Please model this.
Amino acid sequence: MCCKALPIAALEKPAQSRRTHCDIGKGCRIYADRPDDCRTFYCGWMLDANFGDHWRPSDSRMVIMFRQQQLVVAVDKAQSQDWRREPFISHLRAGAKRRVGRGGDVFVTDGANSRRILPDDEPKLS
Model:
């Protein structure tokens, strides 16, 4: 999912696109020679045990990133509304509640659009 949802400057790859380096269902074709951006990236799902198995990017179609005081969830544009479902929205609201008091934020992005999530956010399903 990170190969699709995230931009990779070294490969001139915008968010929400795949390059020939991504072998769907198998992984990265240039893994041994991948750029530093890819080499140093670890999905928040792997780093924080509070993100359960339902957050696994291959299942949820979401990639979790921690940036200073921010939690950023990059979603697959083809399923850009799935974050609004449970258990995802409750987890995002709880994260917003923890971060807002400390000057942090929670954002969901599809590469082109971003939305700030608030603790009392009640997004309407469309």
User: Anything to note?
Assistant: Residues 88-100 form the longest helix (13 residues).
